[in-house]
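Morning, I've got a small favour to ask if you have a moment. It would help a lot if you went through both lines with me. I owe you a coffee for this, so here goes:
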Amino acid sequence: MITDIALPQAEEIIARIVELQPWLRDQQAVAEQERRIPQETIERLGAVGVFALSKPKRYGGADFSTREMLAIYRALGAGCGATGWVVWATAGGNMWSNAFADEVVAPVYESPWVGNRTFAVGGTSRHMSGTARKVDGGWMVKGVWPFATGSVHASHGYLAVFYDDTDDSKVGMVLVPKDQLVSRDDWDASGLAATGSQTMATDGELFVPDERFGFPAQLAKRTAELIATGQGPRRGGLPRSIVSSTGVALGMADQAMEVFLGSIGRRSVPYSPYTRQLDAPVVHHTIGRAAMQIRAAGRVADAAVGEFDRLDAAGIDPTEQEILQFHTDAAYVWDACATAVETLFRASGASAISKRMPLQLIARNCRAGSLHAANNPDTWMENLGRSMAGVEAGASSMSVLERKA
């Protein structure tokens, strides 16, 4: 077990990411074509220290506040939104390592470095999860897990499995070495294509020993014990992760604004009296409108992360109503950032549709992130409205740890 190691500091990581941003921007188109983050980028990110996010502290992981996490993701998103998404998603995978016993997790982090090490997928529905049946000494697991972000560069996966055909609360999480799974390499999307969020599957049934199978109550208890003793992770779980992900959206919006402002002095407005877009009043309105959308989104994100850190400092878990508001805040931020980027994209003229131009890629990536179920504004606005009107809302969280089993 790694215990005597200097933990990385958020300010240092952010400064290194800023230095890496030109590289990340240059690699955006390459990453999209390859449908995965290039290996050299993964290695550079590893040297920067981003894969320490939410890794258990006893294995050299960081202990960052929600605000620090958001700032790191924002810096990454300003370089490459798909890269920021992968780092955020795999940080969520690392969180599961806090829930399993040390002897189970140790091989994951003591093996040779391969990148983000873990990925996690499934649990929100049977469509995105596998199944398991009990046998002597363990479980026979089979299934197909789509949208496995981070699986390309990981060595292990945390996979959700249902072990009762009729009860959706009967779900567990298994830790499986990736070399025991089949990588389908089927991720081909119009947005966030570079995330490599391929489908992972078993080849028939796979035996998983008991120690690598976790029940929700068992995993939640261990996580709570680690939180209580200061060994991490911080309070908030999945909602905290969702809120911190808005940094990726804000970073993409920052990059889009920079790209737009960098070209308006060179771009003309055909069929108009303006030889430079910079001289057209409508463009000034467009910039102002997009800037205020990004600013408003940033203020909502700032308030949400501040509340998470306040609750964490007070040793209090968020209530169901607070979790519902946090999810809605995150959905609002993602939608506002995507809308702001699209506003700038529309104002850039037909030349912006060329794939060598970065704004079209940023627009597709940001809108793709906003369409994720966790960020869908229509879903969360309705849930918030139902709650405020005294009508039963949908589930306020999607965490496997909150299942009753």
Summary: DSSP finds twelve helices and ten strands in the chain. Residues 281-314 form the longest helix (34 residues). The chain has a mean pLDDT of 90.
